[in-house]
Design brief:
By secondary structure, this protein is of the alpha/beta class. It has seven helices and seven strands, in the order E-H-H-E-E-E-H-E-H-H-E-H-E-H. The strands form two sheets. A five-stranded mixed β-sheet has the order 4-3-2-5-6, sandwiched between helices. A two-stranded parallel sheet has the order 1-7.
Length: 164
Amino acid sequence: MTTHQFCTPEWLEESARIYRASPDAKNKLKKLTAKICCRVKSNPDWGIGEDIIFGAFFDKGDLRTLNFFTEGEAFQEADYLMTATPETWKNILRKNSDFVTDVMLGKINLELGTKVSMIDLAPHVNNIFDFLTQVDLQFPDEMSEDELISYRSKMETLRRERSP
């Protein structure tokens, strides 16, 4: 299995490919119509110099997009924008932490949407996180120094490409 780094285009592309190839994944989300974005707060030690936003848009379980967004695009297009540190996202994606608990404790903040509506979406969000972890996912704190240098460069390139 190929390892994909957190918050890279390769990770999102492979996750989307796996989702679209899996009727079971689509079936689990067949009642979901929502546009959900996640902001990963900056953490220079993790090679994330500025916040980065990725999102998944669904229409009755059909994955319409899984991509990166500028802040303006996220506020314009998304129904939900959740914000957390990279460490919090790692804990959620690795299932070391519970999504609903982290929302209620304020570890995940909502910039768009309400806690009540997000709690209603929680079972779907957990399924989304499940499909985002069908790849071997590497986080910056697990990278060698050389990998982290390369990752920082990749993040900077992505940011420049996504700038309005």
